[in-house]
Amino acid sequence: MTRLQRKAKGADSGALTALGDGRFQLSGDVGFSDAARLLVEGEAAFRGEAAVDLDLARVGRVDSAGLALLLEWSMSARDAGREIRYRNMPPSLASLAGISDVAELLEPSGG
């Protein structure tokens, strides 16, 4: 099966996995096709957590919608008095946040 065929079947789709104790993992490609779904899934999963630790080590490709997803999770966490920490941010995502001048919004707030 080629990469394109796997993509068509959703093999590289972004996924949020709960690891327990406020720890989560985001994996796969995170972009326009997955951002809205992941936003809803994340908000439901993070509800009730005082702190969220989100590992990004398994994130593949990411675009501006993926960055917007993390920003939305960050702002929502601040509004809820929750802290969210992004671990193992891929260099491409860190670069996108930097050139978009929003990197500081992805840092923990100490909620």
Tell me the CATH topology. Answer: Transcription Regulator spoIIAA
End-to-end distance, in Å? Answer: 46 Å
Question: What CATH architecture label applies?
Answer: 2-Layer Sandwich
Radius of gyration, rounded?
A: 14 Å
**What is the mean predicted local confidence, pLDDT?**
87
- The H-level CATH homologous superfamily, spelled out, is STAS domain
Helix content: 25-40%
Q: How would you concisely characterize the structure shown here?
A:
Helices cover 39% and strands 28% of the residues. It is of the alpha/beta class. It has a 4-stranded mixed sheet with strand order 1-2-3-4, covered by helices on one side.
Descriptive overview:
It is a single chain. This protein is an alpha/beta fold and 111 residues long. It has a single domain (14-106), classed as 2-Layer Sandwich (Transcription Regulator spoIIAA), CATH 3.30.750.24. The chain has 4 helices and 4 strands, in the order H-E-E-H-E-H-E-H. The protein has a 4-stranded mixed sheet, with helices on one face. Strand 1 and strand 2 (23-30) form a beta hairpin. Helix 2 packs parallel to helix 3 (64-79). The protein is globular. The termini are far apart. The relative contact order is 0.17. Residues 1-9 have low confidence and may be disordered.
